[in-house]
Structures
1.
Amino acid sequence: MRLFIRLSKSLIPYWLPLVLGIIAMLLFTISNVALVYMVQPVLKTLFNPESGTIQAVRAERQEEIQTGDFIAKWRAKIQSALDPIVYKDTRLRTLANFCILLIIIMFSKNFFLYCQTVLTSVALQGIMNDFRKRLFGHIHKLPLSFFHKRRAGEIISRIISDVQTMQGSISVSVADLVRDPLTILIYYFFLLFIDWKLTLIITTILPIVVFLLDRIGKHLRRYSTRSQERMADSVSVLQETVSGIRVVKAFDMVGFELKRFTKYADEYLRNILKTIRVRRLAGPFNEVIATAIAVAILWFAGRRIIAGGGLPPESFMQYVIVLFLIMQPVKMFSDKFARINTGLAAAERVFDLLDTPTTIFSKPDAIPARNFNDSIRFDNVGFRYEGSDEPALKGIDLIIPKGEIVALVGPSGAGKSTLADMIPRFYDPTEGRVLLDNVDLRDLDLSDLRSLMGIVTQEVILFNDTVRANIAYGHTDWPEKEIIWAAEAANALYFIRKLPDGLDTVIGDRGVKLSGGERQRIAIARAILKNPEILIFDEATSSLDTESERLVQEAIDNLMVGRTAVVIAHRLSTIIRAHKIVVLSDGVIVEAGRHEELIAAGGLYKSLHEKQMGA
Ligand SMILES: Nc1ncnc2c1ncn2[C@@H]1O[C@H](COP(=O)(O)OP(=O)(O)O)[C@@H](O)[C@H]1O
Ligand SMILES: [Mg+2]
């Protein structure tokens, strides 16, 4: 219920199209009723020479009002109000009038139906779009740890398919829960209006029909959900094997993957066949029900007609038509409860994601951080990853003065990346604090803080766009001169010039059309163009071959001149120039100093250095 209220809240901005849509639907239903109402006068005028003129009809009504029972009186009164619209003074004129009325009603009926569909879609698609944008915005505020815990596919499916499924419950919740009952009510009143006794008899049969329809629906739902799940499983196997095709081939695992795929595909087959068996049952079943109702009408109405004093033929026709009209919304209504359920399940997952707390954000009274003047300081910093027993960092005290290059070295898993990730607040320390110019990072404006930094990591993320757009990332109006200058400083201009369209070459998904070193140099050009106060390099060169590494290293050296930098490099040759070398092991600082000092000290650094020299 709480979920339902939350969902309904998302409708508020769209109340106008929603309300208009419901009104349009009601007008559509009323047009339908008007159309059916016409059946009776038309038949009467054509086949009864005594009737069909306004004078004749008036006399008839007068008689009904005097002799009829209570309900018949009311019916005659309402009808006599409508008569002047329907009947004219000769039968021929009345007939002409029918033709005009039919055209008007048909036109308005379809007009309202169209309005209803468009208005509801405007609201519905708008709501879905709002949810997608809210989810996208929220996901990007979530801490990195959130992304380690989930597969990318899961997050993406939340945004795309859950929102889609949610649409089911929203469309139902708004429009239909109000609309269908109203439609049913209007038709039902019309049935009562034509023949209330017959209607009450049929009403007693209806719950049985709805119950049976619901049973069939439940089975259908269960099997179709299962087959959807299996289909999703087989698609994910397909996706995994296609994107990992090299590994599948190299390990000759086609047979293994085929078995996995076959399992899901066969389960899908079984479930879809069950679905079909139940669904195909629904057709004959519906016909049986329709026949049962028809037989009931035939019996009850027919008995009275034979006894004399039942419905006149034109009213009988009217009645049967309305009954068919009412079946449609009744059937849809039971169907909709099913969609509400799957939709609500999806909505729950969407809200779950929207409710995931953002742990790293700017405080409302955050201090702006436009400049970096003095130093970055780690003050007894400890950090433990969520769900991990061992802390990744313990008691880190470190000062990075402005304008200096600090190198972090140590064995793999020592905590170098974790330490570097604390500076742009990818993670907040679980103990101690990190300060920028003596202010705790958590008190600074997050977006200011990050705009002070340029980060280049081993894993370069490029977007499927032009080289120019990738260097200028997010700024469409950088002057060409500066982009070229940045590319040159990054040692990238030479290869960019050789690309088919130079700076305007589209580099493919994640930059697949470039080599590792080329991608790396574009990332460096991006950092150079941003011109940040503080630079962070996390193994920016470690995946490169020697030639690329030399070019990238040169680029990095160009970039670091006169800046504050934190460099993690696994090749020690690049570190010798650093003002300070910090040696980490198992999350603690074991040594710090200049290259010569650390060599002289003969500790971990010396042995790391010797290992590499020997290699
Ligand atoms: N997302 C994570 N969740 C849990 N533990 C992690 C995560 N990332 C790294 N670790 C652990 O933290 C420790 C330090 O990792 P890291 O900082 O990446 O080391 P380095 O960069 O020095 O190789 C390692 O023991 C690693 O297993
Ligand atoms: Mg690392």
Note: The beta strands are 375-383, 393-401, 405-409, 431-436, 439-440, 453-457, 534-538, 564-568, 580-585, 588-593.
2.
Amino acid sequence: MRHQDTPIKTYSGFVPTIGLEIHCRLNAKSKLFCGCPNSYGDTPNTNVCPVCLGLPGALPRLNKTVVEKAMLFAFAVDGHVAEKSEFSRKQYFYPDLPKGYQITQFEYPYCLGGKLLVSNRLCVDLERVHIEEDAGKNIHLDDASAVDLNRAGSALIEIVTKPQIHSPEDAAATFRFVYDIVRAIGVCDGNLEEGSLRCDLNVSLAKEGATELGTRTEVKNLNSFRNLEKACNYEIMRHVDTLLSGEKIIQQTVGFDASTGKTFTQRLKEDSDDYRYFPDPDLNELEIDSAWKEETRAKLPMLPHEVERNLIEVDGVSSEYAGILKDKKSLYSLYIACRKNTNPVMPQKLLPELAKWLCTDIQKLSSQELDDGVEQNQLTLQTDLGSSKKCKNSWNISHICELLLQLNSGKISARAGKKVLARMWDTGQDPSIIIQEEGLLKQTDTGSILKIVKETLDAEQQATLDFLQGNQKSFGFLMGESMKRGRGSLDPQVLRRVLQEELDARNAAST
Ligand SMILES: [Zn+2]
């Protein structure tokens, strides 16, 4: 679904239509149907038992935590959680699937519908979300292949979108959106390299204006936003070339080789009939009553796009900074900590300024520290007000609030504020002490400003003369030079007045 005024990009007269199937490994402690640990990277074939090995007579038992995590996702995307759903067996043979079938939800998934509000102009509807178990992993060695079944039986949710996406960029943005959500609600670690989130993509092309979709191909197992975009682009261009040369697209499943940037055939057309699904006789229907639903729904935290909307609509933060805060968890927690601070209180009207300082100077200082190789994974918070100990690499919430108040009162300039901030970061000192020690308070005393103005005019005789002869531009230059002499601490309004008066006086004297 797309905003009416956004034009769809065409490729040599063809419109691509894209749907995504995203597999997300839930971060439950144990697997979907047994008590084996759901952990990555352990010694191969150690986290296994008769159930996940599919030994005869072993009985699966559904993990309640998994269902709750799956439900949280459904609520986050506004999907309909079914009161009754069913687990089925999907039959196929592969070395990493010792049972000979995968337990998944087929006819009756736990979640139907839902939508991904990717951006203002892109909303992608969901077909369904279902729970299923993961397979093991084949490891190909030089002279043999091995199987690690630690992953077999881990819980996944498969998120299936409707084919409503029309560009590789939007496909990547949609995958990214799901990635943000599952991490924000804490149901997946989001580790793309370890395959915690993998995306299949189906692409078809149709002539512009055609009502029917073309033959589709499916690209399997993409685990980065960039690869998804690249694979999508490649597949679209391959379809275009095939269609333009008068040939037909063959329905097939392809893989993507990131090193060549190309897709390659894996297997030809297969339908759901090939899998001979039937309800798993070992498992009851999954029943989710309204009490369980509501209890779980209450645990849903605020979602990234809601965070962004609140920042803009309630706090008045600019959309640019709201976007940054939404994406950077550590910066956002600093923001919230300052917003909640009680000593001193951060006034509502200063929140846009707070966001600006966080997203610019504070972020810059914090990341410089990262570049310097100092071990620090995220900004640390230090709320111990009045502590005199050196607290490098941390931000004191009360100090940030105090600095913002000083800036707002007009006692110090923005330039001085940057200086104070840098020293706060280095030493952990109270901003009012830094302001005092560095003499950064804005000078409003006419007498001392006049002294500086006089010094400036004496030193800049040419510019002074230029101004007296009618060159207005020199005024700005003389303002800047006076400011420099005053180390940026002069009150600009007072300075402007004093400078004008002094120039008038000199003009009168020279005529
Ligand atoms: Zn097991």
Note: Residues 17-297 form one domain.
